[in-house]
Write a structure and sequence with these properties.
Layout lengths: L2 E5 L9 E5 L17 E4 L3 E4 L5 E5 L5 E5 L4 E4 L6 H5 L27 E2 L18 E7 L5 E7 L7 H12 L1 E4 L2 E5 L16 E2 H13 L4 H13 L19 E8 L5 E8 L11 H18 L3 H4 L1 H14 L30 H17 L7 H21 L1 E3 H8 L23 H6 L5 E3 L2 E3 L2 E3 L2 E2 H10 L4 H13 L1 H4 L8 E2 L4 H8 L20 H10 L3 H14 L9 E2 L5 E2 L8 H15 L13 H5 L19 H4 L2
Parallel strand pairs: 2-4, 3-7
Antiparallel strand pairs: 1-6, 2-5, 3-4, 5-8, 7-10, 9-10, 11-12, 13-14, 14-15, 16-17, 18-19, 20-21, 22-23
Helix pairs in contact: 2-18, 3-5, 3-18, 5-8, 7-8, 8-9, 8-12, 12-13, 12-16, 16-17, 16-18, 17-18
InterPro entries: 6-hairpin_glycosidase_sf, 6hp_glycosidase-like_sf, Glyco_hydro_100
Enzyme class: hydrolase
GO molecular function: endo-alpha-N-acetylgalactosaminidase activity; sucrose alpha-glucosidase activity
């Protein structure tokens, strides 16, 4: 089997081309039983692969990494070209549905149309997916003429573990079909559960790790169907006491129901829940953000960007953005939400500007900037996105970050400052610093606090928000490294017997009674109040791969792999160290299963992780719409913090 994999790099533009050989008679893609010896030669302007007369052209700048896997394949690289990334071949990528004609990507002019030279009518070729465990090791030699030869040698495949095989069986058993097509996975599929409540529905946030597992496994149909069907639900009008939420809201979940028509005819319908049936009647703010993030991941992992180019998808994307970017009374660039509007969907004192929402909001904005079609109708929206990204990144990095130095600074804050140059801008009282924090935070670590409002800082460590800040580069490189340092240093508190804590520490005693309303499900060290959630593994793995801390991720995944199959894949674990299965935890929880699978697949193919995270965007840091210098006031407050946000 020959496998060609190409990853584009849109950071540069070039008129040079990559030349890929292809013919209907000699191509091994057209006839899998044929063997075809292929050689790669370079000139000043192009690559050439193959022995046929007809070739496909690709822009030279599209080649971030080139991998060809064949028993009889050799690569010859001209020495005056910089092909160190090819010579190392440390990572590999696969391209699905690769054909002789590709539509231009949205907002991207350097990925020109692929065309065929020679006039032969070639049929589209589909490049086979590289097996998950397949690895290749390059052998590099240099001959007397100065050319470098790179031979690719395959390593033996690594078989899935018993836990992985069971997880795949359970995940596929949780698939929900609508009109004969897969559209998602139920939240939990416990055959012994007689009262599933809403766990038999497809949740947008819960489906994300399932979608990634399917995409990494080469199965994209279910993800595409999910994205399109939830988009159709977006326009439904749902009300609570005769009041409708803003246009563009995505549902928290949906269920496939069968309804009777005239006579004996039956019809399947999708019944969405926008929060009007949820406990507390809270709209799911994070659903639309996760939908945008998954839409980008679908394009990155499949190479099919036609989905995000569709008019209905572009319209739905704009509706979500308009809802999030609507002007209000708030003075901050962060999103203002009520309690229970995200993964923590019960009263836990996160109303205001919770970190989890801000990290997802930032990621969704970065995704949207990549996917929005650049035209007159979207120019104002793109400008608003850039401005919000810049303001939000500064706000979170500057005001949410705490480490030993920052805590000492807050400890010495003066209060009641009325000035443009105030140090204590939010009038935080030093007495708010909890006693546990002073002894808990390590010297070399730090984290982003859970919430910030006037005269209030929530010093709890919320895992999802901090992990997604790393993944999206909402934090600075130094901050991202410090977050993982803290998790490693405080592993007994955050990982222990089952990674990872949803938040730390738990609310207890009078604090629990006041903040949760004496919630019997959120008792100390249970559920959202300090419970351990295995689904966070995939986000932890992604963050570790980005920061080159893979061993830390392997430690967490290995710990989970020992317990999850034995414990029947529970939703969450209780107690301070995560020893016990949660007292109300559903078994065979789908995002526990898919989170584990996604983590394992990312560890086997860490190169795929680069498509799911973002690097620092330094251009954003230079954008500032602050008009203080034009109104007679002295300067924008960012100037003093410029060195902080760049490190």
């Amino acid at each position: 089997m020959n496998t060609i994999a190409i990853i584009r790099n849109s950071a540069t533009k070039s008129s040079r081309r990559v030349l890929i050989g292809s013919s209907t008679t000699s191509s091994s893609f057209a006839s899998p039983h044929r063997k075809c010896h292929r050689t790669l030669l370079t000139t000043a302007n192009h690559f050439r692969i193959g022995s046929a007369k007809n070739f496909l052209y690709l822009p030279f700048s599209s080649l971030f990494h080139f991998r060809i896997n064949s028993r009889q394949l050799g690569l010859v690289i001209k020495p005056d070209e910089d092909f160190s990334s090819i010579a190392r071949v440390a990572y590999s990528f696969s391209v699905r549905n690769f054909s002789t004609s590709v539509e231009n990507r949205v907002n991207n002019t350097n990925f020109e149309r692929i065309y065929v030279q020679g006039g032969v009518n070639l049929k589209p070729h589909v490049v086979e997916r590289v097996d998950e465990e397949e690895k290749s090791v390059p052998t590099i030699e240099k001959n007397s003429e100065g050319f470098v030869s790179v031979s690719v040698v395959e390593k033996a495949k690594v078989e899935d573990s018993e836990a992985e095989r069971e997880a795949w069986r359970l995940l596929k058993g949780a698939v929900v079909s609508y009109c004969g097509n897969p559209v998602g996975t139920v939240a939990a599929n416990d055959p012994g559960d007689k009262t599933p409540l809403n766990y038999d529905q497809v949740f947008i946030r819960d489906f994300v790790p399932s979608a990634l597992a399917f995409l990494l496994g080469g199965e994209s149909e279910i993800v595409k169907n999910f994205l399109l069907h939830t988009l159709q639900l977006q326009s439904w009008e749902k009300t609570v006491d005769c009041y409708s939420p803003g246009q563009g809201l995505m549902p928290a979940s949906f269920k496939v129901r069968t309804v009777a028509l005239d006579g004996d005819n039956l019809e399947e319908v999708l019944d969405p829940d926008f929060g009007e049936s949820a406990i507390g009647r809270v709209a799911p703010v994070d659903s639309g953000l996760w939908w945008i993030i998954l839409l980008r991941a679908y394009g990155k992992l499949t190479g099919d960007y036609s989905l995000q180019e569709r008019v209905d998808v572009q319209t739905g994307l704009k509706m979500i953005l308009n809802l999030c970017l609507t002007d209000g009374f708030d003075m901050f660039p962060s999103l203002l939400v009520t309690d229970g509007s995200c993964m923590i969907d019960r009263r836990m004192g996160i109303h205001g500007h919770p970190l989890e929402i801000q990290a997802l909001f930032y990621s969704a904005l970065r995704c949207s900037r990549e996917m929005l079609a650049a035209n007159e109708g979207s120019s104002n929206l793109i400008r608003a996105i850039n401005n919000r990204l810049s303001a939000l990144s500064f706000h979170i990095r500057e005001y949410y970050w705490v480490d030993m130095k920052k805590i000492n600074e807050i400890y010495r804050y003066k209060t009641e400052e009325y000035s443009m140059d105030a140090t204590n801008k939010f009038n935080i009282y030093p007495e708010q610093i909890p006693l546990w924090l002073m002894d808990w935070i390590p010297e070399e670590g730090g984290y982003l606090i859970g919430n910030l409002q006037p005269a209030h800082m929530d010093f709890r460590f919320f895992t999802l928000g901090n992990l997604w800040s790393i993944v999206s580069s909402l934090g600075t490189p130094r901050q991202n490294e410090a977050i993982l340092n803290l998790i490693e240093a405080k592993w007994d508190d955050l990982g222990s017997h089952m990674p990872l804590k949803i938040c730390y520490p738990a609310l207890d005693n009078e604090e629990w009674r006041i903040i949760t309303g004496s919630d019997p499900k959120n008792t100390p060290w249970s559920y959202h109040n300090g419970g351990s959630w295995p689904t966070l593994l995939w986000q932890f793995t992604l963050a570790c791969i980005k920061m080159r801390r893979i061993e830390l991720a392997k430690k967490a995944v290995a710990l989970a792999e020992k317990r999850l199959p034995i414990d029947l894949w529970p939703e969450y674990y209780d107690t301070r160290t995560g020893k016990f299965i949660g007292k109300q935890s559903r078994l065979y929880q789908t995002w526990t299963i898919s989170g584990f699978l996604t983590s394992k697949m990312l560890l086997k193919k860490p190169e795929m992780a680069s498509m799911l995270f973002w690097e620092e965007d330094y251009e954003l840091l230079e954008i500032c719409v602050c008009a203080l210098n034009k109104s007679g006031r002295r300067k924008c407050s960012r100037g003093a913090a410029r060195s902080q946000i760049l490190v």
